Amino acid sequence: MATRAPSGRDRPRDVAERQAYIDALPLPAAIVAMRGSRLDIRASNAGFAKLEATACKRADKLLRRIGAADAVGRVLSGESSSERFQWRDGGLIEGRHFTVTVSPVTPGSEFGRRVLVTLLERTGEVRAGESLRRQTLTDPLSGLANRAGFVEGLDLRIADDGADGQALVLVDLARFSRVNECMGSLGGDELIITVARRLLGQLRGTDLLGRTGANEFAIAVRIDDGPGDVLHVARRVEAALSQPFRLSDFEIKIDCAIGCVLATDGGATDDAEELFRHAQLALKAAKLSKRVEVYQPAALDAARRRFTMETELRRAIERDELSLAFQPLFSLATGQISGFEALARWDHPDGAIPPSDFIAVAEDCGLIVPLGRWALDRAMRTLAAWDATAAYTLPLYMGVNLSPIQVARDDVAAMVSGALAAHRMSGHRLSIELTEGVIVSDPDRASRMLDALKACDAQVAMDDFGTGFSNLASLQKLPIDVLKIDRSFVTDMLGDPDRIAIVRAILSLAQALGMSTTAEGIETPETARLLAALGCTTGQGYHFSRPLGGDAALAFALSALG
Question: Residue 106: CB partners within 8 Å, gap ≥ 6?
Answer without folding.
Answer: none
